[in-house]
Automatic annotation (TrEMBL), chains A, B:
Keywords: DNA-binding, Transcription, Transcription regulation
Protein name: DNA-binding LacI/PurR family transcriptional regulator
InterPro entries registered for this protein in UniProt: HTH_LacI, LacI/GalR-like_sensor, Lambda_DNA-bd_dom_sf, Peripla_BP_I
Domain HTH lacI-type: 4-58
Any one Gene Ontology molecular-function term assigned to this protein's record: DNA binding
CDD domains referenced in this protein's UniProt entry, alphabetically: HTH_LacI, PBP1_LacI_sugar_binding-like
Organism: Nonomuraea roseoviolacea subsp. carminata
Length: 331, 331
DNA sequence: CCCTTTCGAGAGAGCGCTCTCTCAGCCGAC
DNA sequence: GTCGGCTGAGAGAGCGCTCTCTCGAAAGGG
């Protein structure tokens, strides 16, 4: 009781296997009545092409890997960003009938697995989400002669086209907003300095502060809520008179708000807070969080398009998307 | 400049293709020195087996589909549950060297796509996450003669083994806690009644209220934060004297807390609140949310094991995991 | 009316692998 | 010394599909 093959379809329709194949693949050089006969046979037999046989000869698989190269327990489940990227990329790939193979590359052993898998030709291309500077995967994959694109600029210089948002510009937007509101002592909770987002957002902060003749007050977190709370306490200890803080992502900003509340500071009256990312939760904090929005969905979509472009021999130029300040009540 | 084939490996090692294949697949009937010669050839050539050719003959693909059958915009990105399930399932499948193909089946057209894909034999089995009663996918997939398991009991009776938590028992735990605390007017914000979780949690609530001689006060939400806020306002309108509310999931509970705050009710002094799910955010609400925890990671892991068991001809019995009350400050 | 062009359909050679069948060689046993 | 059994290796048939090449027939031009 096997599945019907193209051979069976051809036999039933009274044509050759080649002709049946032509119909299945939508070639136009088939006479209408023959085409109909084949389609009828396909329908009656419930024929579905065998993808393994097909990709054996075409050398294509019509699926792409989405590699999330982060310790999954920490980032993946907590940060809604990942779900959004995965969802948007899936939706976009669906439109061109390609599948997403999801791979989590957390440990060194899974790195090896991913490499082997990609090298095996299971997929036509790779979308890589990796923010850590120390990550060896971008370099390893770029050596594999498989089309690779990255969500976010790779932290190490490597020849992979990427789609990113304007982290520096976004941070500048945020800090300029605080300056314009007359804040004098503007601190920042920076992200990890081995991540591009962490670096660039700190750069933006520094640039604006320098230009507006203010002193920088920096604490460093690791993009988790908890680290934001800790960093905020530290900042308050370092400079009890600070009147604003730019936090490099919303998750840490939520933690910072918590610490400010515990320290008896009113937001925004005593301390103004601006975050970065505009995650869902930013709307529901007390008070609602002013933050820098970057177009996650568009970025994911652009990444998919970039990869599809690569398949066709298109250009491999990075794409940078603009950011936007969303003013709520926290600043 | 093609990739090396098994033929090339065999030639270099001076053996037949069959012997090279034996080495690659770890068969023991190969003499040590020949085995070493083959391994050396593999290493020198950088040989990686072609998965399409292999699965053409073995009829296996070593990958499984994870089908998320929900309108993705609404549930997927907002509910951290999904990320956790996806992550846990991926990690578990990694241990047996199988890949996850992620498929979002939101619209009718994507349902068809998923069906075609599964029918095409792209994957060895399917893990289905579908909570909606009206969803035709579980029934469709169960007809396909492919091993299928479900995360959560399918809403329509269909012959698919599943892994679920004890929704009824969990709700009873929550409501009994409120009764024990001396609450008299215990309302509930139920989930959608076309979802199993929605139904069962309401059943649990009703059972305990009946047994403890209290009147039930019900509003229905759709598991989103927003709907929780709306339902809470409605409940306060219906019965301003209510002193407790059991909310069928944490996301709605967060919305409910917001409405309670806006209505000037203190939690838990005026109104006690118990949620369900124990999502990350439950720890960070004002006040921290008392809720029913169910083991999401374990459930996902059990689902994978169930599917792997099916591959080996194992039993197809549903698995029900216990729930646990996490007491924080809201009740 | 014949030859060339075009169009539609078939034949058949692979794609790279697994796996059964076959067989050579070597051992021990009678 | 011969024979049976067993181990290790090769030959070769497919898995189901695509795609080039070939060819017949119909159509059009000289």
């Amino acid at each position: 009781m096997r599945r019907p093959t193209l051979e069976a379809v051809a036999a039933r329709a009274g044509v050759s296997r080649a002709t049946a194949s032509r119909v299945v693949n939508g070639q136009t050089t088939v006479a209408p009545q023959i085409r109909d006969a084949v389609l009828r046979a396909i329908d009656e037999l419930g024929y579905v092409p065998n993808p393994a046989a097909r990709s054996l000869v075409t050398q294509r698989t019509d699926s792409v890997a989405l590699v999330v190269s982060e310790p999954p327990t920490r980032v993946f489940s907590e940060d809604p960003l990942f779900s959004t990227v995965i969802r948007s990329a899936s939706v976009e790939l669906e439109t061109v009938n390609k599948q997403v193979v999801l791979m989590l590359a957390s440990s060194a052993s899974s790195h090896a697995r991913v490499e082997r898998y990609i090298a095996g030709g299971h997929v036509d291309g790779v979308m890589l989400i990796s923010m850590h500077g120390a990550d060896p995967l971008p370099a390893a994959l770029s050596r594999l002669r498989v089309p690779v694109v990255s969500y976010g600029r790779p932290a190490v210089p490597v020849d992979i086209p990427y789609v990113d948002n304007d982290n520096v510009g976004g941070a500048e937007l945020a800090v300029r907003h605080l300056v314009a509101a007359g804040r004098r002592r503007i601190a920042t909770i920076a992200g990890p300095q081995d991540m591009i987002g962490g670096q660039d957002r700190l750069t933006g902060y520094r640039t604006v502060l320098r230009d507006s003749d203010r002193r920088s007050i920096v604490a460093v977190g690791d993009f988790t809520r908890e680290s934001g709370a800790v960093a905020m306490r530290q900042l308050l200890g370092d400079d009890p008179d600070l009147d604003a803080v730019f936090v490099a992502n919303d998750l840490m900003a939520v933690g910072a708000l918590q610490s400010l509340r515990q320290a008896g500071r009113r937001v925004p009256d005593d301390v103004a807070v601006v975050g970065f990312d505009d995650i869902e939760a930013a709307q529901y904090t007390e008070p609602p969080l002013t933050t820098v929005r970057h177009p996650v969905v568009e970025q994911a979509t652009a990444m998919v398009r970039l990869l599809l472009g690569l398949f066709e021999g298109g250009p491999a130029d990075p794409v940078i998307l603009p950011t936007e300040l969303v003013v709520r009540e926290s600043a």
